[in-house]
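Entry 14. Ran structure prediction on the chain below.
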Amino acid sequence: MVDWHKISLEKIAKQLETPDGYIRVSGPLEHDNIVNGEGLRAVLWTQGCPNACPGCQNPETWDYEAGELRKIEDIKEELASFRGQSGLTFCGGEPFVQAKACKEIADYVRKELGWNVWSFSGFTKEIIEEYGREPLEFLKSLDVIIDGPFILGQRDLSLRFRGSKNQRLIRMKVGTGKTLSIE
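Output, structure tokens:
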């Protein structure tokens, strides 16, 4: 029998290695996005994903070596230039394999720009909490996580901000990661 729990813990442990002060992205920052969270949002597309979900809409983001290595300071400057945004959403790829860099950016937009912060993840909140370390610290910096792998057999286009029925939209208390509500 396949132990999906153990496999998930092994996958989240495959953190993408980048030099301090850098993040690997799969494309340019977006702004005025309305499909990856509530309100007008900036979106940061991370590179690298160990989950490789069949039917994923972004398979080009799986390769840990692809994309572009960018300075976090440059990302912050670009985000600060966006006007009218209410939040930042981390998409991917898998943001939680670059958790340290994502947390630094999340903390910046919350403190300096007053934005809320969302992230998608192919990992469940429970796996992130059990693994701990940088992924848990990034989780604690979020207002919302949309968790769980995309499962093609459970695809449902009527779900708000989710692609498959197993995925959850979890609102959390910032700073603690405590669940406030689950959709």
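The mean pLDDT is 95. Will compare against last week's run tomorrow.
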